[in-house]
Amino acid sequence: MAQQFGVNTINRSDPTPERPVVGGYVSRSREAPKSFSDPLWVIVPGYSTETPYRCEWGAIHGSTLPAQGAQVAVAIDDNDVPRVVWWEGEGFLTGIPGAKFDGVTDDTAAIQAAITRLPANGGTLQWPGPALTSGTLDFDGRRSVILQGFGGSSAGAAMASRLIYTGTSGPAISARSSYGIKLRDIGVLYTNPSYTSDLIDLSNGGAGDTAYFNASGCYVGGAGVNGAKSLFTLNKCIISKFTDMIWGAAEYAVRGRNNSSEYSNVITFDNCANGSSLLTAGVYRNAGEVWNFRNCTFEPLKNGEGVALSSSGPTQNGTTFDGCWFGDAAKANWITWSGNGLRVVGSYIAGGGETGGTGVTVTGESFGIEIVGNNFVSLENAINIAGENCSGLTLTPNSYAAVKNKLVHPHAMTTSLIDANLFTN
Asked: I need a surface site. Which of 124, 159, 178, 418 has the fewest CB within 10 A?
């Protein structure tokens, strides 16, 4: 039956299988159901424009039956059986009784009750519309829970599936010491102008490191406000991934470890859009060990400055920027880094002219710096090796256009492979 809908990508190797969701509408050629014992016939555009398919009803039902032509969302369960999980006008969700998803009713208690009822080995919560919450949704210590929305990040703050947090403090989502939590195709927004906390907390809550968190296709930020300390905090979070994300308004989008004695390791960012002129201090702060940025775009902050990665002191080890784009900033200090193992490769790094700041700044007694194959454009300084006794540098080849200083190095550099052209302007 799943293949009839054109959905045949269930991942059987995953211990928590994907449950694909497709959209459609109630057939106009068949009689609409008069009760939940009647059949429900659904058309899924793109898979069938004429033949209706009979759907099973989900386990939980609302009170209003769908009419002919009503929009529906259909989930394909583990046995390849299509089941309707949401329909237009109902705003009700399989597995979350009492949650209205209308963006007006406070759904905190109903959603938290559904989280609490999940089995120890996890489950999927479908998220059909905007859910207003006033308190923290607690996933602390949970395993293998998927929050599945019905619209990707390209819809931004207006996407159909949203968590709208109205609280004044504390996280909207707490997933401390959790394992395998997945957030998909959902907008997470805060609305209170006095809010200054971390919006999503993935730190170690005392019962072990948070691990294998995965967020994809999500818009996360403020709705007309930008006072959050960060959108994600990853202190003692490990082996996690963010894909196709758009960051909104906050001081920082993502904060890593709190200090040098703590950690935030093996974190990957793929195809993420960073900046959006609503962040106020930077995009990423205090990377830990093995943070990888691939095919990401970085745009200026609210003040017009470009700050992709900075640190309050902790060293950052094994950081890679691969195929990224940095641009549109009036003045840039894109990457400020110290530690062991920095790779910046195949990226476009631009400022606002020959007084437009610096592309990459290396501080401290750093080792193992590879800055290769990049295009530096409209900057005062392309590369600034500001730390004392930096060693193991490979700074060739790169290209430069409208750059005042290709390389600034006030201190000695040792064991380095450096293009002689770096010393000419």
From this structure: 418
Place of tokens 């293998």: 144
Q: For 172-272, where are the E strands, in sequence order?
A: 173-174, 182-184, 187-190, 198-201, 210-211, 214-216, 219-222, 230-233, 237-243, 246-247, 250-255, 265-270
Q: What is the spatial distance between Cα 163 and Cα 152, in angstroms, rounded to a whole number?
A: 14
Task: Annotate 355-382 with b (16+ C-beta within 10 A) or e (fewer).
Answer: ebbbbbbbbbebbbbbbbebbbbbbbbb
Report which DSSP code applies to 153: G
Helix (H, G, I), strand (E, B) or coil at 417: strand
Q: Report the candidate in 182, 181, 188 with the shortest Cα–Cα distance to residue 165.
A: 188
The mean pLDDT values, 10 residues at a time, for the chain of 425 residues are: 31 36 77 84 68 71 74 67 66 58 90 86 81 96 88 55 95 97 94 97 95 95 93 97 93 93 96 83 94 96 92 90 95 94 97 86 93 96 91 92 90 61 56
For 410, half-sphere exposure in the C-beta direction (CA atoms, 13 angstrom radius) is 9
CA–CA dist 403, 382 (Å, integer) = 7
